Amino acid sequence: MNTEIMDLCTQAVAAARKAGADGAEAFATRRRTREVVYEKNDLNLARADEELAIGIRVLAGKSMAFVSTNEPAALAEAARQAVAIARISPPDDHNALPEGAAVDPTDGELYDPAVAQIEPEDLTRLTAAVVDGIARRDARVAIDQVRLSVEEVFEAIASSSGARGQSEATYLSGFVMGMVKEGEEVGSFTYDGAAGNVRSAVTDELWRGVDRFVEKAVGALRPRKGRSFQGTVLLTPDAVGEILVGPLLEALGADAVRKGRSPLAGRLGDLVAAPAFTLRDPGHRLGCFGGRTFDREGLPIRPLDLIGQGALHTFLYDSYEARVAGRSSTGHAQGGATSPPRPGAGMIEVLPGSEPAAVLERDLGLALLVPRFSGRVEMATGDFSGVVKGGFLLENGERMPVAETMIAGNLYEALKHIVALSSDRLQLFGSTRFPTIAIEGIVVTAG
């Protein structure tokens, strides 16, 4: 475990107390990045860099301030600035640093030495293999971009109120984007890939992602006019994140509840979704980037159902929002070393159903398959509308690619009208895992 940034946190807290802070917290991150990007039929970026940031949050009475720096030699000056700002900032009775304790460091599953050893040359070779693999699968696929990156992240926190923790994690990701071109015909833009902590697992999933990418791109060629109806849509994992989970997490933020922007305020314990739907924070064990055993304030992260079997269990609280609400923090302070903490979800998953997505497609009758959604979801009302990209009309077990089609509905009603979730799930961008979800009552308008 890297102790350098923990030492910097300890020094920053001591400097803030010496400058007159009544309480102080320091959060530090050291990030090492290697990245290769292929686009416009050429390798146009291969870089390696390293960055360090230390954020200092201080209390002066009931006033709070935050300052960050990337220079270890500037810690004392940054601490003095933070205290000076706090002394002229308005007080808030809810300002405090949470009572912390030493937390267990992250275990080995989040740090893979095989990922840490990857250099830009290795990424270049893998990028070339992906480009060649796509061409061999189908020469009609035009690659817009292939992006591969490696990150090593070391984080630490220390505070005058007892918080102390550190973590180390590796992250390998690879994504491909593009479309099919055949003569004058151009298919719908699509993408796929993989991300995670472990080199072998990510590499294997990346090649499966290449297969999915080619299949989606080829399948979307020569779309036809679809059908207009009000009925069932089948959201792929990407669309689940875009239409359901992303806006839902905004509504679950305790700050949105406090400010009167969330329609879920006052609904704890109520059924807000179909009983088949469970939205869970799995803690740090999703096998993905950002995994640590503690949140941005040094409080332990534990697996937690936000919505369990359709019932609303909790909102997302950091320590400030918890004090305002008279509750305990759920360990959902998010952020890094360049900003103060805020409530939000780190990793998130929707639990699976009982049948594979392919079976759902076959058995739904008339439905619209939604791979991607380009539109807007209003968190406050739940109303959404937008264009389905690369969609398919499902009818009697057959798939037909359709031209851009509009869908419209309401998020909070849609959650109640979930009729099926797939048993297979896809991990997206290394921090979420979703199944395919079938929802009834959505308005579909053919283009």
Short note summarizing the structure:
With 447 residues, this protein is an alpha+beta fold.
Explain what this protein looks like in three dimensions.
Helix 1 (4-18) crosses helix 2 and helix 4 (120-137) runs parallel beside helix 5. The chain has 2 domains: 4-219, PmbA/TldD fold (2-Layer Sandwich); 223-447, no CATH class. Strand 10 (304-308) and strand 11 (311-312) form a beta hairpin. It has 447 residues and is α+β, with helices and mostly antiparallel strands. It has 10 helices and 22 strands. Strands 8, 9, 10, 11, 14, 15, 16, 17, 18, 19, 20, 21 and 22 form a 13-stranded mixed beta sheet that branches. Strands 1, 2, 3, 4, 5, 6 and 7 form a 7-stranded antiparallel beta sheet that branches. The chain has helices at residues 4-18, 75-87, 113-116, 120-137, 199-219, 237-252, 254-258, 319-325, 357-363, 411-416; strands at residues 23-39, 42-60, 63-69, 141-159, 164-182, 185-186, 190-196, 229-235, 279-281, 304-308, 311-312, 333-334, 342-343, 348-350, 367-370, 372-377, 383-389, 392-395, 398-401, 405-410, 418-428, 432-445. 25% of the residues lie in helices and 38% in strands. The chain starts with a helix and ends with a strand.
